[in-house]
Amino acid sequence: MQRKENETPQGQAASVLVEFLEVAITAVVFLKGVYPSGFLLPSLDSPSSMPFLFFFFFFLLLLLLLLLLLLLLLLLFDVGKGAFERRRYMNVVVQRARHPQLRYYIHATVSGLLPFLQKGMVDRVAVVFFNTDNVPLEKFIFKLTVNQSYGSSVEGVDLQISLRSFLAKLSVSESLTKKLPPDCRWEITGNFQLLPETGTSKEANFWIPTDTKQWEQPLFITPIRSMSSDPLCLQFYIEHPSLSESSVL
Amino acid sequence: MDSRLSNSSSSTHHSNSKKRKKNATANNTNQKTLGVAWGSKSLSASSCSSRKSPFSDFSSYMAHKNCKLQNQFDSEASASAARKPIFSGVSIFVDGFTVPSSQELRGYMLKYDGRFENYFSRHCVTHIICSNLPDSKVKNIRAFSAGLPVVKPTWILDSIAANRLLSWVPYQLEQVASNQPKLSAFFTLKSSKMSEDTFTNALCQVEPDVQDSFPRVGQLKERHPSEVGEMVEVCRQISNESNDISSKKTDVFMMEEPIGERVICDEEKLAEANSSETNNERNTEGELDPTYQEPSTSFSIPCSDNQNVHQFPSSEATGSSKQCHSTLTDPNFVENYFKNSRLHFIGTWRQRYRKRFPTLSTGLNNGISNSNKSDIKSVILHVDMDCFFVSVVIRNKPALFDKPVAVCHSNNSKGTSEISSANYPARSYGIRAGMFVRDAKALCPHLVTFPYNFEAYEEVADQFYSILHRHCNKVQAVSCDEAFLDFTDAMVEDPELLASSIRKEIYETTRCTASAGIGGNMLMARIATRTAKPNGQCYITPERVDDHLNQLPVDALPGIGYVLQEKLKKQSVNTCGQLRMISKNSLQKEYGMKTGEMLWNYSRGIDYRSVGIIQECKSIGADVNWGVRFRDMKDCEHFLINLCKEVSLRLQCCGVQGRTFTLKIKKRRKDADEPAKFMGCGDCENLSHSVTIPLATENVEILQRIVKQLLGCFYIDVKEIRGIGLHVSRLENADTSKQEKYTLKSWLTSGSASVEKQKYHMGHNKHNSDCANCASSHGCIHSQGSSFQIDNKILNIHVSGDPISTPPPLCQLDVEVIRNLPSEVFSELNEIYGGKLIDFIAKGKGKCESSSSLGNSLEDDATCKEEDLPYSDPIPLNQIFSENKAMQHERVLGSGHGSCSQVTHNSNIERDDLLPSSLSQIDASVLQQIPEDLKAVILEHLPAHRAQDFCSTPAICPGRINQDSVGVDTSKNCPGTVNHALNDSLWAGNLPSWMDKFKDSSCLRKLGEIYHRSGFNSQLSSVLPQFLSEFHHLDLTQEIYDETVNIMCELLKQYVKVKIERDIEEIYICFRLLKRFAVKSQFFSRVYNDIFPFLQAAVDDNYGGSLFMP
Hints:
The complex is a heterodimer. Chain A is of the alpha+beta class. In chain A, 39% of the residues lie in helices and 24% in strands. Chain A contains eight helices and seven strands. Chain A has helices spanning 9-32, 40-45, 56-77, 100-112, 114-119, 156-171, 201-204, 243-248; strands spanning 84-89, 92-97, 122-130, 136-146, 185-192, 219-229, 232-241. A five-stranded antiparallel β-sheet of chain A has the order 5-3-4-7-6. In chain A, strand 1 (84-89) and strand 2 (92-97) form a beta hairpin. In chain B, the strands form four sheets. A five-stranded mixed β-sheet of chain B has the order 9-10-5-11-12. Chain B has a four-stranded parallel β-sheet with strand order 2-1-3-4. In chain B, strands 13-16-14-15 form a four-stranded antiparallel β-sheet, covered by helices on one side. Chain B is extended. The chains are: A alpha+beta, B alpha/beta. Chains A and B meet through helix 3, strand 6 and strand 7 of A and helix 1, helix 4, strand 16, helix 49 and strand 17 of B. Strand 6 of chain A pairs parallel with strand 17 (1106-1107) of chain B.
C-alpha cells in the first residue's frame, strides 16, 4: 500500500529521457546544418539581386525594407522555410524538424529504445555523421546509465533542470565541432551493454549488425556536458577521428 | 532610421536577442513607457487607428504587433469553452524563466479569463510574474516593475487550485519583498487587499474569525470537510451580502462577476449542507439568521460526516431505494447504484483485499525473483469457488442446495433484470449468466431467485483468503472467489492431498464448495480447474499436459474470446491440438505479435507468468449506465455531484490523487428506441472529454467543478444522456501531500502545545543527540509552514519546499524528548509511528541517561543561542508574530543548526546508529537557508574534519557510499597517525581524506583551505581556478618538492577515478584548467605531464578514445 506509483523511477526517468533525446538529437542535426536551417540566409545570399548593380542604392533600400518585412513575418507568423521550426521544450527554445519523415525517423528510433532504456540496457546513443564514403566524421554520443537500484521517486523538476542545461550547452557548442563537408549522411545508433536475449522473438528482428570498421579508428573525445541526477546519469560528448585520420581524408 | 534597420537586420534567429535589440531601438525612439521600455500599449491604442503606413517606424510596428497579439489572445480566449473568471481583471507579464513556463501560464490565463501581455506596459499589466530577477533589476525595482507587484508563478497555480483569486502578497518574490510593503504591515494592509480581492466586507470580517477559530477546533481531523464548511459559510454570506451590494455596484469593479457565479455554483452545495443540518434540527431558515454567521456554528457542517451529507431528508428519499430506480426519482441514485452493483463489488473488492492482507500481498512481490530461476518443478494451485454468488447466498439454506437458484436484481418473473450467477442445477436447465430473468423463468419455471447479499460475499471472501494465506505465502488474488497459489518453494509432497485439504477447510468454514486445479504453471492450473468443476479437483502433471491440451477446445484457453474463437473457426481450428499445427510465424502474422505468441504458447501449455504480480491501477472512476434519465440540467448536475463524491471517495480509498479527469457520456442514438432492458442504456453513442489540471487532487469540490466544465463541453441535451462515467487518471500517490497536511494541521490544532514542544526540542539539544537534530529542524519547518498558512489565510497551500515528508526512524528519536512531550502531542506522534512509541519509551529509559551526560561539554556559545530564543507566544497569531516571523525564522534555523553541530561533535559514539542520509539531508537544507554570515560563524565553530558532514548535499559528494566505512572514520578522528602511505580512499568519505594529508605539506594546505572555504561544493573544477591563482605567487617563493608533485598527482588521479565514469565534463574542465596553468607554472606543468598519460588511459578505458585537449 505504501508504494503506489504508476511507474518505477527508472521507467519515469526513461520516458523523460526518450523525450529529451528526441529533442537533443534534433538539436544536434540542426547544429550540424545537414539540412537547410534558416530562411533568411538563403534568401539573402541569393545572387538574383547582383545583376541590378545599377540601381544599387535603390535596391539597398528596397532590400532593407524587404528584410524588415520578412523579419516581421517571421515574428508574427513564425514563417520560415528551413527544415526546422522553433519550439519550446522544457522552457527553452529548441528546433523541431518540419519534414514529417525526418521527424518520424528521430521519433521512432528513440522511442524504440524506450523498453531497453527502462531496463538500463542501453549504454550509449550516438548521432553519427558520415561523409560520402561512409566514413564517420563525427559522433555525438549520449552515454547513459540508469541506476536500476534507485528506489525513491524521481524529481521531475530536478531532472528537467539538468536536462535543460544540455540543450543550453548544446546550442552554443558549435565551435567545438568541425564543419561538415557537403553531402553528408547521418544516422542514430544505440549501443547496448550486452546483447539482448534472443529468446524474445520480435525484438531479435530489429538487430542489424554494425559495420565494425566504424569503430576501429582511434578517437578523440570532447566532452560537452555531464549530469548525474539519480536515477539517471547522462554524459554527452563528441567523438572525432584522430587528427592523423582527418589529415588523410 | 538607418541605424535601427541595420540593427534589426543583423539580429540573429535567437528570439531573446531579437527582443532585446527591439527594446534598445525602442528606447532610441523615446517611447513613453516608464522604466525599462518594452513595446508599449499606450502607443498601440493611438496608432492602431492610424495604420495607413503600416511599419513606417518601429513604434507603429510594435503597436501593430501588440494589436495582433491581443486579437489572437482574445480569439483564443473566446474559443476556450467553459472558462472560470478567476483572474478577470488580472493581466500578467511573465519576465524571464519560470516554472511553469510562460506558455503554460498563458494557457491558464486564457482559461480563467485573465490577460497575458507579451510586452510590458505600465497601463495594461497588473502583475509581473517571475521566478527570479537579475541583481540590476532588484536594485532598481521601481524602474523595472513600475510599482506593480512582482509575484511568483505559484500564485497563479494556487489561485487555480483554490478556484479564487488569492492575495498576491504572500507570493511576492523574496528578492523584492524587502522593497515592497513589510510583513508587519501585511495584516493591516491585508484587509484592504482582501476587499480588493473579494469585494465583500462581510467576507473580510469572517475570514479572520474563521482563521482564529481554526486552530481551536481540536477535533478537526480532515481538512477538506472543514474547507467545504468554510466555503459554504462564506458563500452564504456573499449571497446575503450581494443583495445589499447590488445597489452600489459602481464601487465593485470587475471582480463582481466571479463571485456571483461562485455563489450560484455553490448554492447546491449550500442546499445540501443545509439539508444535512436538518438532521441536527437546524433549520434552513438559519441561513438568514444573523447569529448563524458565526464561525462556531459553521463548523458543525464539517463535523457531520460524509454520510450525513449524502442523506437527504426529503420525503421521497427516505426508504425509497427499493422503488426508485432512475436518476429521475432517486436523489441518492449514485450511491444506491453502486451499493447494488455486483461489478462494483468485484472491482472494489481488490482494494479491500489489499487492505486486509497488506503484508501478504506486498511480501510476495519480493519472492518473485527467486521463483523463475529454479529448476524445480513448479506447482501452481488454482482455487475457484463454485458459483460463488449463488452458493454464498444459499449457504445457510441447505434445502435449496439441489434446487435451481440464481442471483439477480429483481425477482419479477417478467423482469429484464439479468441473471448474474446461477448454480449448477440451474445451469442444467440451460440458464446462463447474463440472461434476462424472464427468459430464465421460461426455461425453468421453478427457478428461485435471490438478490445480492454483499455483506455475505465480503465475509466469505475474507474467510476464503485467510484460509489460502494460511496455507501458502504466495497467493495471487484474481477475484473475490478465485486465486492462484504457488507451492513451488514449499516443496509439497503430494499437491493433490494439499488441494483436498484446502478445499475441505474452505467448505467447513464457509459452507461453500470450491474447486481446485493443479498444474505446472498458471495456465495449466486454470485449465485443470475447469475440468475439476464443480466441487472437484484435478492435477495435470507435466507428462499429461499434451494429452490434455490435445482435445481441449480453443475457447477454453484464457485470453481467447468470442471474436478470436470465430476467427480460428474460420481456419477450422477448434482444438488446441489443431492450433499447434500452425507455426508461430503465421500465427503472429495472422493475429498480431502478442496474440500470436500467446496462442502458440498456450496451445503448448507454456505460460511464463508467475504468481503474485499485482498490477497497480492506472485510473479510478465510476460509470453509471443503467437508470440514467434526466429531465433537466439540474437533475444532471445533481447526479454529477453525487458521482463526484463517489469517485472522490474511491480516490481517497486508494490513497491517490489524479490529474486527468475524463467524463464519458453515453448518448442515445437518434434512431434508438427505448431499450429492451428496463432503464437500460440501449443503443448509444459514446462521447468523452477530458481535462488535465496542474495539481493532483481528490477533492470533491474541485472534482465537481471540473466535471461541470467538462459537461459544458459536450453541448448535449441532458434528456439524451443514458450513461455517465467519470474517470480519474494520471494518479499520484497522495501520501506525501497528506503527510504535509497532517503535520501542518497538527501544529495548528495544538497551537501552543507544539510550540512548547519545539522549545523543548531546542532546549534538549543540549542534553543529547541525534533526534534533536531532526526534531528541531522539524520544528523549523513547522514554524515555516504555519506562518505560510497564516499568511495565506485558509486555502490550499502546500509547502512544497518541505524536505521532510516522513517522520524520522524510531531509532533516531530521543527518549527523553518524547517522554516529556505534552500528552496530546505524544498521542499524535504515537499515531504516526503506529503505536510503537510507547514501547520505545519503555526500552529507552536507560539509554537516555548516558546520552544526557555527553552533552554537558557544550560550548557556551551554543547554549547562549538557545536561550536567546524568545519564541514569542504564538496564540495571537497576528501582528507580533508576523513582524517577528522572518527574523525568528532565521534564528530558529540558526540556533537549531548551531546546536546540532555541537551535538554531533560531542557524540561521535552515537553516530554509529544514526542514518547519515537523513542527517545530511536535513542539515543541507537548513544550512542553505541560513544567511551567509551566520553560516560562516557556524562553520567556524565546526571542527574542520566534521564540516563536510553537514555541508555536503548528497547528490554531488564523490564516493558517498564509503561514508559509513569505519576505516575512514577512524583515520579522520586521529589525524596524527596518518602517514603518507597513499591509499585509494583519498576522495572517500564526505570529507575527502586528502584534506588531512595536505595539512602537512605546507603549500598544498592552501588547496585544502580553499576547498574547505568553498564549503559545500565538492566539484574540484570550481575550486581549482581560485587555488591556481593563489598558488601562482606561492610558486615563486617556494621550492617544488617531488613529494608535493606526487601528492598532487595522486589527488588528481583519484579524482579522475571517482569522476571518470559519471562526470567526464568535470574532468575535462579540470584538466583544461591545469593545462592552462601548466604554461605559467612549473609545478603544474610537472603535475600535468605526470598525470596526463594516466588521464588518457582512464578515458580510453571508459570511453574508448582519448580526451581531446585543444
